[in-house]
Design goal:
The complex is a heterodimer of chains A (315) and B (286).
Chain A: H1 2-28, H2 34-38, H3 45-54, H4 61-73, H5 87-122, H6 127-141, H7 144-158, H8 174-208, H9 211-218, H10 223-260, H11 266-275, H12 279-307, H13 309-314
Chain B: H1 14-20, H2 23-41, H3 77-113, H4 115-129, H5 133-144, H6 148-174, H7 178-185, H8 190-226, H9 238-245, H10 254-281
Helix pairs in contact in B: 1-10, 2-3, 2-10, 3-4, 3-6, 3-8, 3-10, 4-6, 5-6, 6-8, 7-8, 8-9, 8-10, 9-10
């Protein structure tokens, strides 16, 4: 098992290196000379020369990359031009907020998506299946930022039930924190629920046709027991993997959701950074997201093996 | 000589028959065709100039004069919606075109040659896939500068790995077929084998994926324009209309309702069309 995990970690290394190359290349896409922009209007040659030296822009690009990578490995993602704070510190401040949003969204996604997928598979071809498929297709097609706007219009503006924006830490005021996060997490969760529903349905359909389900039914087991104990437990495997992989979608969805509900998280950090031309922050966020995604991928693989006795024995 | 009329009419293919019998796919096709038609016909339709402001008709609710109402500077929302369809569909199709044009050749090469070529391309694809689609598109659009063209490039580049991976996988299964072995045996070059024997056989799944990715790309363009990184004002786009609308939710809710509905409809249309194409073209479904 340990060998398997080690092998997976080793496979992830080249991917991580390439991610770092991409993220480093991003800054090279910037139009114009960044030093000229930093030097101000008078463009004093001495200042330009100093900045070039300071940011090692006179070095060959490969050297620049390794210097940058060395800093990244030491946890130094550069300084935010806007706030003057280290990017690492900014990300560390904002990440917990987005993690809270992600956990709540995933809760709704699992709560809605999995039962819908099971019902849809068990009642294949009935109106329940048809309805669940339409709901899932709609969930995949609706832009979540628009859904957010519509919820604000209905729930906050018209009914006045929940705050339209803002954030409160759960450690300060749990009730208020839940209230501020309810709509954003539902908005993010519905899209994921749609993906989970489709996946659960297809996994369940595969499992329901297998011999051991026929045997379980032939033994006279109650249908509920057959579905939940025998079929669902086995269909859960690919669903667990997908749940881990949806992490990336969650972070991407959080960008717009946080913008709409003015939640001071990771997503809002990157959008604000984009508008303030705070490129070190944009780079930092992309890098952290990608690394997080690769780690979740790794976790999904390991979980898959842990949950699947046949795979576990094969190792 | 046989007259053309005497030739036996080619029976409609199995896939086409299957597609025609799928009501959801047909509905999707009609929805997409409707939006394409209004986008193409926009200059010919008797609608006001989408940029024309009317200070006497600011934030007016839908009426006979303005069917979908007006925005915060008195522009006709219906007209902006119709012209906005151009930006959305163009972004969807062009960005997917970029993704296919870059991704398919790389996927072909990786799958066909295998070995270290495949290793390098596949690792790069995994690295690109590790960056969530929208975050990568936002970062690219931010670094390239805000404009519809750059948004299309950013979305297209972000979707490249999807097509590399798909094409590579398809090539791996096609290249072991007898006809490819045969082509190799008669001494055809790599380029000819890839172009004449492999590519035509991997097109169906690419077509399905392209249709589904247009849906994703339309949402991505709307998202970038919503953030101010896509279509720039005063040119209309559904995403930027929503960005403005969110500031007037209590005074003019219609400003937010229509563009979002349009995005939803066109995206669901492409998704239904893509699902229908997949069911029709997937050999396992026959």
């Amino acid at each position: 098992m340990l060998r398997y995990i080690l092998r997976r970690v080793l496979i992830a290394v080249p991917t991580l290196i390439l991610v770092s190359v991409f993220v480093f290349t991003l800054q090279k896409l910037l139009p114009g000379d960044p030093v000229l922009a930093m030097a101000g209007e008078d463009r004093d040659p001495a200042t330009i020369a100093f900045l070039r030296e300071k940011y090692r822009l006179n070095d060959p690009i490969l050297v620049q990359y390794f210097v940058w990578l060395g800093d990244v490995l030491r946890g130094d993602l550069g300084m935010s031009l806007r706030t003057g704070l280290p990017v690492t510190e900014l990300i560390a401040q904002k990440l917990p907020v987005t993690i809270q949003l992600a956990i709540m969204s995933m809760f709704w996604a699992l709560l809605i998506g999995i039962p819908m997928g099971i019902v849809s598979a068990v009642r294949k071809g009935t109106w329940a299946d048809w309805l669940a498929n339409i709901v899932a297709l709609s969930g995949l097609s609706v832009p979540n930022f628009w859904l957010g706007i519509m919820l604000i219009l209905l729930v906050s503006v018209n009914l006045g039930w929940l705050p339209a924006s803002g954030y409160e830490s759960p450690f300060v005021d749990l009730k208020r924190s839940f209230q501020t996060m309810l709509m954003p997490s539902l908005v993010l969760g519905t899209g994921l629920a749609a993906a989970l529903m489709r996946h659960t349905r297809s996994a369940m359909l595969g499992v329901l046709q297998s011999d051991y389900i026929r045997t379980a039914r032939a033994k006279g087991l109650a249908e509920r027991r057959v579905i939940l104990r025998h079929a669902f437990r086995n269909a859960l495997l690919p669903v667990v993997t997908l749940t881990a992989l949806l992490f990336g979608e969650l972070l991407a969805g959080a960008v717009l959701t946080e913008q709409i509900f003015t939640i001071p998280g990771f997503g809002k950090l990157v959008v604000d950074a984009v508008f303030n031309r705070d490129y070190a922050v944009v780079q930092g966020v992309v890098l952290v997201t990608a690394v997080g995604f690769i780690l979740m991928n790794l976790l999904a693989d390991v979980l898959y093996v842990l949950l699947n006795p046949r795979m576990r024995d094969a190792l | 000589m046989t007259a053309v009329a005497d030739l036996p009419r080619r029976a409609p293919s199995r896939s086409w028959r299957k597609f025609r019998r799928n009501p959801a796919a047909l509905v999707g096709g009609v929805v997409v065709a409707f939006f394409v038609a209004i986008a193409v016909l926009a200059p010919l339709l008797p609608i006001p100039d989408p940029a024309a402001t009317d200070w006497g008709a600011i934030r007016k609710a839908p009426s006979m004069a303005h069917w979908l109402g007006t925005d915060e500077i008195g522009r006709d929302i219906l007209s902006r919606m119709i012209w906005g369809a151009q930006a959305s569909l163009l972004a969807g199709v062009v960005s997917v075109g970029i993704a296919v044009a870059v991704g398919v050749p790389f996927g072909l090469v990786a799958g066909y040659f295998g070995g270290w070529t495949d290793g390098v391309i596949s690792r790069a694809t995994e690295a690109l896939l590790a960056m969530p689609f929208l975050i990568l598109a936002i970062a690219l659009a931010a670094f390239l500068g805000p404009s519809l063209t750059n948004a299309m490039i950013a979305i297209g580049l972000s979707a490249v790995p999807i097509f590399i991976r798909l094409t590579r996988g398809q090539v791996l299964s096609v290249k072991t077929e007898d006809y490819v072995e045969g082509a190799r045996a008669i001494g055809l070059g790599h380029l000819a084998i890839m172009g004449r024997y492999i590519l035509p056989n991997v097109i169906p799944p690419i077509l399905v994926q392209a249709t589904l990715t247009v849906a994703t790309a339309i949402i991505a363009e709307a998202s970038l324009s919503f953030l101010g990184l896509g279509q720039q004002p005063p040119a209309p786009s559904w995403g930027s209309m929503l960005n403005t609308a969110k500031n007037f939710l209590s005074q003019a809710p219609w400003m937010a309702v229509w563009p979002g509905t349009a995005i939803f409809l066109v995206v669901i249309g492409f998704n239904m069309l893509g699902d229908g194409l997949r069911d029709a073209l997937d050999p396992r479904e026959h």
